[in-house]
Amino acid sequence: MKKTFWFMSMLMTFFTVSAQAQTVEDIQKIENYLNNIKTIKSSFVQTASNGNTTEGILYIEKPNKIRMEYAPPADYMIVGDGKDIVFNDKELDQITHIDYDDIPATLILSNKIQIDGKKLKITDFYKDSGTTEAVLEYTENKDIGPITLIFGNQPFELKQWKVIDTQDVEITISLYNMERDIDLPETLFKFKQQKSPLKFNQRKGR
Predict the structure, then answer these.
(1) Distance (Å, rounded) from C-alpha 150 to C-alpha 132?
(2) Which of 53, 77, 200, 205 is most buried, most CB within 10 Å of its CB?
(3) Domains of the chain
């Protein structure tokens, strides 16, 4: 029993030492990484706490441009041109317009991110040899929930982000095969609604 208690105490001590409070250098590292991104192209897997899983391709161009193409069987797409974000459900032939200020993940799209506690602050932080995880919250807009950013440390790059949707479902976006600062065609961020095929009534012969 004593050996078991000693082992568990050592294990807890190890994990306590591994986790650290954020330093000024940690915050600057996150800010510099996000602010220096010009473009991103990446495969992604989106998982939800209710068990749903989808995947696709993500495109980002700073500032504020985003495109998420979901692979079949998911039949929808997200396009943001810098002014408006469109969610297109192709199966339902439905378009929803979303305001940038209503989505916590749009902070990734900003040209200037400052985690100074005024508009944006870190409310939880974890760091070990492999990953850095920071929970960010907006201080002024309480209607926007927190976003968790997870970075790999070697090299330092964004691997995941997590948000809670309006139905209290946690959504995790995991990034793979990321390419940074490559040229992306402007047409990626222009949403064009596909016209539904015209239906003609067949005329009966006389």
Answers:
(1) 6
(2) 77
(3) 20-180 (2.50.20.10)
